Amino acid sequence: MSLDTQANYIRTIFDRIAPVYDSLNDWLSLGQHRIWKHMAVKWSDAKPGDTCLDLCCGSGDLAQILARRVGLSGQVKGVDFSPAQLANASTRVASCYPPLPIDWVEADALNLPFPDNYFDAATMGYGLRNVTDIPRALQELHRVLKPNAKAAILDFHRPNNSTLRSFQQWYLDNLVVPAAQQFGLTEEYAYISPSLDKFPTGSEQLQLARLAGFAAATHYPIAGGMMGVLVITK
Ligand SMILES: C[S@@+](CC[C@H](N)C(=O)[O-])C[C@H]1O[C@@H](n2cnc3c(N)ncnc32)[C@H](O)[C@@H]1O
């Protein structure tokens, strides 16, 4: 499959998942993804007045947390290439008062429509595993961040511990896929496990970040190593 075909396939999957994405996330992580997302925003070092990026924003959880942190003097760009996810993100914040300072931008993480050195901080939740070219995504992130700015990248991770590894596989096969099946989305969620097999480990992510030009990189395993946050500094 060419990279373009792969990207189209991934976009279609996320367009189809959009209507149930939030409920499934809450149910499957027992609400814990909200805590992990708050941790990622904290580690991004976003501050009041900052201009921030939420890459692969989906329905916009991280963009919303960033927006509350930067306040009305700041600005957040929520970027995704799935129109259905962005429509959902926009509807979710439409009734917020005071309004949140978020622009929803339909764009490819591999070719961002922003100038160099533009953002004070960035987040990416469950996006890096889905892009077709991870080194390129990290290079783009590096390009658009200001010097010394940080990005916090949250995603699944295969734990080193063999018991937790088996538990994670059991959980994906026996809870995640059957839950998705209820919504007619078996194929869409069955892809998580193979995508995780191909996803770089924490230490491989550190190497990739350094190759992309980041001056510092730390990978924090969370949930027993079943998730991780890569924190990188330009
Ligand atoms: C698993 S969802 C994560 C959504 C959200 N960040 C969260 O944490 O709930 C991954 C998102 O990445 C987006 N995505 C994947 N590849 C992308 C790319 N190359 N450019 C922009 N968005 C992309 C998908 O459309 C999808 O909305």
UniProtKB/TrEMBL annotation:
<keyword id="KW-0489">Methyltransferase</keyword>
<dbReference type="InterPro" id="IPR004033">
    <property type="entry name" value="UbiE/COQ5_MeTrFase"/>
</dbReference>
<comment type="function">
    <text>Methyltransferase required for the conversion of 2-phytyl-1,4-beta-naphthoquinol to phylloquinol.</text>
</comment>
<comment type="pathway">
    <text>Cofactor biosynthesis; phylloquinone biosynthesis.</text>
</comment>
<dbReference type="GO" id="GO:0052624">
    <property type="term" value="F:2-phytyl-1,4-naphthoquinone methyltransferase activity"/>
</dbReference>
<dbReference type="GO" id="GO:0042372">
    <property type="term" value="P:phylloquinone biosynthetic process"/>
</dbReference>
<keyword id="KW-0808">Transferase</keyword>
<dbReference type="InterPro" id="IPR023576">
    <property type="entry name" value="UbiE/COQ5_MeTrFase_CS"/>
</dbReference>
<dbReference type="GO" id="GO:0032259">
    <property type="term" value="P:methylation"/>
</dbReference>
<protein>
    <recommendedName>
        <fullName>2-phytyl-1,4-naphtoquinone methyltransferase</fullName>
        <ecNumber>2.1.1.329</ecNumber>
    </recommendedName>
</protein>
<dbReference type="InterPro" id="IPR029063">
    <property type="entry name" value="SAM-dependent_MTases_sf"/>
</dbReference>
<dbReference type="Pfam" id="PF01209">
    <property type="entry name" value="Ubie_methyltran"/>
</dbReference>
<dbReference type="InterPro" id="IPR032904">
    <property type="entry name" value="MenG"/>
</dbReference>
<keyword id="KW-0949">S-adenosyl-L-methionine</keyword>
<comment type="similarity">
    <text>Belongs to the class I-like SAM-binding methyltransferase superfamily. MenG/UbiE family.</text>
</comment>
